[in-house]
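User: Before I run my own analysis I want an independent prediction to cross-check against. Here's the chain; please return only the structure tokens and, at the end, one sentence I can use as a sanity check.
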Amino acid sequence: MKVLFLVQKEQRAILDRLYEGIEANCECDTRWLDKADQSNLRRYFAKQVDTDAYDRILFFLRFKQEIRQVSFIQSVPNLVILEHDAYQNYITCKYTGRFSRHYAQLPWARVVSSGYCVTRRLRAEGVDATFVPKGYDQALLRNLSLTRDIELGFVGSVASVAYSGRKALLDDLAARETLLVTRTRSGEEYLQTLNRIRFFVSADVGMGEYMIKNFEAMACGCVLLAFDQGDEENSALGFRDMDNIVLYSTVDELCKKLDVLRKDPERAAMIADNGCRLAAERYSFSALGKAIVDAMAPPLRAHPAPNRWTRWRNRWGI
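Assistant: Structure tokens:
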């Protein structure tokens, strides 16, 4: 299977190992699109892409740019969209409902979504959606077996509207416990910080799926204290409360379980070890790259041929 893989040149997360995982499992032409290219895909395709040369065209671009260019994207054949932010479709934020409206205009495209329940909901709306979760960079993140001198910590952003629930929960917890909330540079500083944290607090409140930091913290040997996203999501991911993860729904519940584990360090160590093993076995970017390629392989829905006017516009990039 020959794949044209279009990714954003400027992005916050470092996902190079995920891209390598995709490239290792298919004949892949990966191209990094800057803001100008993403904002005018019709022009980019006219100058740079022979769509007939590929079995699949995989987008991992900014949703903000995609929704502005539906008329062109509707003409792209063999389209698969990789999307890590579709959970925003179902929470209160600026993109509430917009993923549903966007995909309704692209019924022949396949959407690879990182949330199990999000995928189920998209399917119920008629979207050809399939589930491949988030994961972690196995070349960067691992358990270094360092002394864990930060008992309770969170590393990441609390700034956006989508993270308002996260900030409120962390503020509540910080009023009761000694909690480090910090940000680091990607790479070595992030690796070292995760390896100093004993209990990592994940506060993906109201998001409906587990963000990438859950898998990163697990891989680095933290005891992951995660806001419970529900039985379906947990079952799909192999998460078992007080076995390979610690789930909570309220700050009170989090504090009670934290107290139990403080009194039973052997149990805490077991949970950390089991979580680290689960992450290594199932959620490395290497494994997920293969899963994404496998998700692209089945036949896509029939795609109507573009009309003469669209073909003319696509030819000249206007």
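Sanity check: The two ends are 30 Å apart (CA to CA).
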